[in-house]
């Protein structure tokens, strides 16, 4: 069954997103109003070191009033390449400059409400270049053993679905067979 968008209008917008209202026709011919959020692409990155530890941020999200582990992330600026944005965000939020980035996955965290695509990258090496410029984004930054990831996810300590999926995939890719 396919829903068909008949039209869409912007209700609110700023430099990061717009809130739109769409007239959607259902397969049975009925119409409904559906709000959606149009977002810029998001670039995400982390580093896994030689000890199979992953660089994570412990941060509070005021929207859900919850704490959890995340990867460095942010919107891709106009004209910016995805991997470049991921590297920039990692350095700004952690103080670590990644080595060559590898694309891990691209996901749509909430495709029933938003068109956001999160492009997730990782590197096998990084260089500490100093205290993070955006240190206000997290309470702390830590190297966490990758083997602990499944337990962190199971306990709800990685609440963002995109971050949990990326970390579980990294766990699988790096530690499968151990």
UniProtKB/TrEMBL annotation:
Report keywords, A-Z: Hydrolase
What is an annotated GO biological process for this record, any one? Answer: nucleoside phosphate metabolic process
Question: Where does the Nudix hydrolase domain start and stop, copy by copy?
Answer: 38-166
What InterPro entries does the database record attribute to this sequence? NUDIX_hydrolase-like_dom_sf, NUDIX_hydrolase_CS, NUDIX_hydrolase_dom
* Lineage: superkingdom: Bacteria
A molecular function (GO) held by this record is:
hydrolase activity
Q: Does the keyword Hydrolase apply?
A: yes
> Which PROSITE patterns does the record associate with it?
NUDIX, NUDIX_BOX
Coiled-coil-forming residues are none
Q: Does the keyword Acetylation apply?
A: no
Q: Which GO terms describe its cellular component?
A: cytosol
Q: Which cofactor does it need?
A: Mg(2+)
PANTHER family documented for this protein = NUDIX HYDROLASE DOMAIN-CONTAINING PROTEIN (PTHR11839:SF18), UDP/ADP-SUGAR PYROPHOSPHATASE (PTHR11839)
Q: What is this protein called?
A: NUDIX hydrolase
């Amino acid at each position: 069954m396919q829903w068909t968008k008949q039209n869409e209008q912007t209700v609110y917008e700023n430099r990061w997103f717009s809130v739109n209202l769409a007239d959607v026709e259902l397969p049975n011919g009925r119409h409904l109003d559906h709000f959606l959020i149009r977002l810029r692409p998001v670039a995400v990155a982390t580093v896994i070191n030689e000890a199979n530890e992953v660089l994570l941020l412990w941060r509070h999200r005021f929207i859900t009033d919850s704490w959890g582990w995340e990867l460095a992330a942010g919107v891709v600026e106009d004209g910016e390449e995805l991997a470049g944005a991921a590297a920039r965000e990692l350095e700004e939020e952690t103080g670590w400059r990644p080595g060559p980035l590898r694309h891990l996955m691209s996901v749509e965290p909430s495709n029933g409400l938003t068109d956001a695509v999160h492009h997730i990258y990782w590197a096998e090496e990084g260089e500490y270049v100093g205290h993070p410029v955006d240190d206000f984004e997290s309470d702390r930054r830590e190297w966490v053993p990758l083997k602990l990831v499944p337990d962190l996810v199971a306990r709800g300590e990685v609440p963002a679905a995109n971050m949990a999926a990326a970390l579980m995939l990294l766990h699988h890719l790096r530690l499968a067979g151990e």
